[in-house]
């Protein structure tokens, strides 16, 4: 065995290199942004995949919010029943002290994305400020609305939640919205359809960045039957949605 | 309109009655138990469905753990890469001060279920103590192993994680383990296969308890294509699993 071969496993300790394999395109540092009334599965569908991926690839995850207080899925439903159901997640960093080495940013959706200004101004500003140094950006559900407001998606093909499609479109008329899509990959940006679609979008991201063998192994371990066709979207059909006419 | 009709919506405020509809079999109070190194999707797949259900039906959720300290998905992988990926959830109650009106208990799985005694003794004891007053018990993945240890599943048909099938079987030889199953309903107990199967199992629970219209509406809102056949399980085939021979 040659010296360089004995040193191969050590490559794993260097940021940006994959475990036991030199490939600097695979990212090390992931972050997710949270806001009050985020949708739980928007966050934990993709993160469960990352949690498992981190057992074979070195990954770091930063959980970002305005403060370090736990962030809750709870949202008030004045017209709804008298329920008390919520889960609270602990951030690891605030936007102000976020690490500057984030390579992949995950933006979830949920009822909270509809909060009127200035509730999400800090989130939108953080996405806008951070995007230029990101390798990849991933949105789930109505999270695409926060990114659309930054201008990052101007002229870019993107999708979002289908039940809230009208709201999604209203966030920007410069985005090339695609109605019939489980997810859309446009360059280094993945946007997914509503909630559960974050799983299929994240598996497609893993397939693209880490390879089909890695994505398939993860899906088998997590007992998930992936949707492999980004165009497969029964929900756009259910709501009879079509792409808006894009101004040229 | 008759007086009783005008009072119908008020029924929603009474525990055990469904929103706007008198049906005392539908539960109000749900709980999930957490332990270190739980699997995120085991918890948040089913809970995301409950979060959404709580917008039309009155529901309470208790998040139970040994202490009120946030509980982390993190697990040490001494042989794995140098990763730092985890999410921490805030419990609402400890086992010692848990409300005594829990009607539905959710037991997730994850690497943490393999912790050697006495790490999970309090969890197993709580499940055993609480089961007699539950309406329904739901397990995801290796969570079934904690329940199997209580004896509650003796003589009961049940399933669990397929990659960890040998470990599942080792938790009790008195359970009638079913290898080929996305989930198994046995009386008031739902046990599901690994991780992502918690989604299909929970939708089946909702379909059974709240009705197909409620389950379908939720799945459409959450953009999820449910597996409706409990016997559909490509992962038991992948691992070439068969049911153990049960002692009579």
Overview of the molecule:
The structure is a homodimer of 248-residue chains. By secondary structure, chain A is an alpha/beta fold. Chain A starts with a helix and ends in a 10-residue tail after the last helix. In chain A, the strands form three sheets. A seven-stranded mixed beta sheet of chain A has the order 5-2-1-6-7-11-10. The first copy, chain A, has a two-stranded antiparallel sheet with strand order 3-4. Chain A has a two-stranded parallel ribbon with strand order 8-9. In chain A, helix 2 packs parallel to helix 6 (197-210) and helix 6 (197-210) packs across helix 7 (212-221). The longest helix of chain A has 14 residues, at 40-53. Residues 1-24 of chain A have low confidence and may be disordered. Chain A contains eight helices and eleven strands. Helices cover 28% and strands 15% of the residues of chain A. At the A-B interface, helix 2, strand 2, strand 4 and helix 8 of A face helix 2, strand 2, strand 4 and helix 8 of B.
